[in-house]
Amino acid sequence: MGHHSCCNKQKVKRGLWSPEEDEKLINYISSYGHGCWSSVPRLAGLQRCGKSCRLRWINYLRPDLKRGSFSPQEAALIIELHRILGNRWAQIAKHLPGRTDNEVKNFWNSSIKKKLLSHGVPDLATFPDIPNPNASPEAFFSLNGNPNLIPSPQDHQLYLPSPTSMLQSGFDQANCNLEFAHFQPPPAPPLSDPSSYVPTWPLGYHPHLIQEDYVLGNELAPMMPKLSETINRNDRIVPSSSFPHEVVDPVARLPSFPSGSHPHAPHVPISHFDYIEAIISSLPS
DNA sequence: AATATTGCCAACCGCCTGTCG
DNA sequence: TCGACAGGCGGTTGGCAATAT
């Protein structure tokens, strides 16, 4: 029970890989490529199942893997992407060159999650609609409560990080400051009473998903889903019925604020990416 | 010094999706 | 259309090392 068919066909070894096994796998894939993973162990002379070989190669032996601890920039990017994508580790890892989904997931579960929770930040994967009023100020860096992400009173722009540019810039901090994608939300009816504003988003939609639409759209522009569609975890565009909660109209439902009416709007629009990065850097290790 | 606890992370497990005959 | 199979993914586990008692 529970094992793949490829694992049942032969006596397979489990557990940690030995250096000898690593060498066999590296030598084989370097010479022939992996091809069909289920045939790799037989051809490479390994007593492992194909899945185990694939995992070992992807997570540990691949030559393009980055080693070492995550930088504050990477941590900030992971937090940002997690807020947008939730626990879609493979999607998140695609924006971190040299990092694997497993590595990102482990880093999140062992480090970031605990740090954020200890600082009163809720689990963002749960998409809370209402931020915890008792949370610390940094808890509100998410769109739900961060005024820095509200369209600025000057230009009504919402500033979104561009994963592609971050990828190309190698997470250079200076570029992170510069390489931000802008888009213009349409005019929206002004709030009748600006003082009644509370730091949460109206209408019950999830700004995380609005961002996701744009983030994905930024990279996958030719494959941009329609509003009746969404992108599943395999990067496939699927009917929204599969993920009804992810269907949003990213334009029509964008809130906007009349000039000067937003009580929490910063004078200068800054990126919350920098904000998160600063928080992570300041957290005790 | 010995033992217990904690944290990290490599690896496994089960499920889902896509492909092919 | 259906079933078998492989690839891929997220959740979870277990072993090891570091730290605390």
TrEMBL record:
The keyword Nucleus is annotated on this UniProt entry: yes
InterPro entries reported for this sequence: Homeodomain-like_sf (IPR009057), Myb_dom (IPR017930), Plant_SW-associated_TFs (IPR051953), SANT/Myb (IPR001005)
Matches recorded under PANTHER family: MYB DOMAIN PROTEIN 55, TRANSCRIPTION FACTOR MYB26
Source superkingdom: Eukaryota
Domain HTH myb-type span(s) in chain numbering: 9-61, 62-116
A GO molecular function held by the record: DNA binding
Position of the signal peptide: none
Chief location of this protein within or outside the cell: nucleus
Keywords: DNA-binding, Nucleus, Repeat, Transcription, Transcription regulation
Subcellular location(s) per record: Nucleus
One Pfam entry name: Myb_DNA-binding
Organism: Vitis rotundifolia (Muscadine grape)
Record-annotated Myb-like domain positions: 9-61, 62-112
Name this polypeptide is given: Uncharacterized protein
CC annotations in GO: nucleus
